[in-house]
Specification:
Layout lengths: L7 H24 L12 H37 L14 H6 L7 H4 L1
Helix pairs in contact: 1-2
Amino acid sequence: MPHPKEDPDHFRDLLHERIEKLEASLAVANAGDDTVAPDNAIGRLSRMEAIQAQSMNAATRLKQEKRLKRARAALDRLDEGTYGNCTTCGDPIPPGRLEIMPETPLCVECAR
């Protein structure tokens, strides 16, 4: 596996792919996030289910927005030359971890 210092373009590509996927996913989530009107529900249970689905969608959207923010921050670190180092302790983040989660700012130990 390449190291960020040896092949920054590989990780830049991974981050851009991640950002594109997250932005597309957020666009879909935002489009489907309509308020549930009482007139649109068949019954009380249907309305409760719709509200629960809306709440779950909001939580998922929030999680995706945080990941998107981390991915953009990782691109900044890549440009600064600090990408691949833990933002907490400064130790190198294993390349395998960066392959799976290119937006991660933390090494395994600090993530625990």
